[in-house]
């Protein structure tokens, strides 16, 4: 089915009592599974739509949506999309001052929140109240929003720099890219997609829309409830950052049981599709999961474009990010995309939109093999030139080390010396839960071909991570930010 707008998407739920969304709710003594059919969710969206309109929200409104990962977020987001209001998305955990400054800078009139007490400049609406139906609520018939040019949302992404940037999200790009990804992956109405990373991150909303359009069930969770949710809700599809899969493999090594038994006890018996992206993952980890008969499928995309390359069942090559699902080309080793419908219209700089071209250089170094599989070999700007003129890619070295040892992460950067040469700094990050042998790590690093070829002085350091470091050096999706880590150690 072709979806031209969000009205088409959400009204497709009206008669769908076969697919559902489920999530866990604490009832005071334990977790209770809440399950709603798409048809029931459509009714809740309709209630929310009517209540928002009665509050004065209309197509010209700018509304802050400041809620954590909850069913209320999806319902409110859907209703606002139907009204045509522009949303400013936040994760429900922003500091009050930063949130107020951000909302004010975009002239936001309302903010929907679940916070009990918050001092903001905008009119505040309690999210829970929007799903209630009382005598004063008159159900309004849903109407399509015809404005295709306006950005549906402004969201904030740290991207590769680790510094949040304001991005404009387009309607047509969102619908086209989401549908294109789900069609290519061939998810079925029997599948259930676990969405647990923050909904304030565009990617998770993108996945929820794809599920609705393609009649795929949804399990909604969060980072704290993930393992409970996997066990009790039994999803079949999980997208997680590489760190999640590294940590699970280390857990199995400590456990001593068979790989398959340990992974199934954690991920559930119905899991059939493990997806990862957002950062490189070492081939040793991919081989580990293949040996355990729990295949990981690498996918690759960018916030601005959506999914670009994907592995899938029957077409999965370890080390590659799969085959392209949009028009791409490689120029001077860099991947260039030509998307008919980019997700992002552009970046907001000082409140003004700097529009993005449909043809876009990704900044990623890439090659294609004879079968059409693509391989991403790090960021173009991360390439280091050593004192002897040799070029190395730090990300590939970092992933080799991380794939073999029980550590948190590795970061490599150069530091200039007084004689205009460079020291190659290799910082191995670990926490109290890691059991790696530092001597073996140091020996392995010094024997690596890339390190032996360096004429730079090589310094290896081991750094015990503090809780505040984890908040600073990782994004909301659990992706390690090299830029933030390097900035921390250089200071």
Main traits of this protein?
single chain; 491 residues; alpha/beta; Rossmann fold; GMP Synthetase, Chain A, domain 3; 9-stranded mixed beta sheet; 8-stranded mixed beta sheet; 28% strand
Distance from first to last alpha carbon: 54 Å
> What structural class results from the helix and strand content?
alpha/beta
CATH architecture of the domain at 6-195, by name, is 3-Layer(aba) Sandwich
CATH topology of the domain at 6-195: Rossmann fold
Low-confidence parts: none
Provide a quick synopsis of the model.
With 491 residues, the chain is an alpha/beta fold. Among the domains are: 6-195, ANL, N-terminal domain (Rossmann fold, 3-Layer(aba) Sandwich), CATH 3.40.50.12780; 383-490, ANL, C-terminal domain (GMP Synthetase, Chain A, domain 3), CATH 3.30.300.30.
How would you describe this structure to a colleague?
Residues 32-330 form the AMP-dependent synthetase/ligase domain. It comes from Anaeromicropila populeti. The chain is α/β, with parallel strands linked by helices. Helix content is 31%, strand content 28%. Among the domains are: 6-195, Rossmann fold (3-Layer(aba) Sandwich); 383-490, ANL, C-terminal domain (GMP Synthetase, Chain A, domain 3, 2-Layer Sandwich), CATH 3.30.300. It has a nine-stranded mixed β-sheet with strand order 2-1-10-9-11-12-13-14-15, sandwiched between helices. An eight-stranded mixed β-sheet has the order 6-5-3-4-7-8-18-19. It is globular and about 70 Å long. The termini are far apart. The model has no long low-confidence stretch (mean pLDDT 87). Helix 2 packs across helix 3 (71-83) and helix 5 (171-185) packs across helix 6. Helix 10 links the parallel strand 12 and strand 13 (296-302). The longest helix has 17 residues, at 38-54. It has 15 helices and 26 strands.
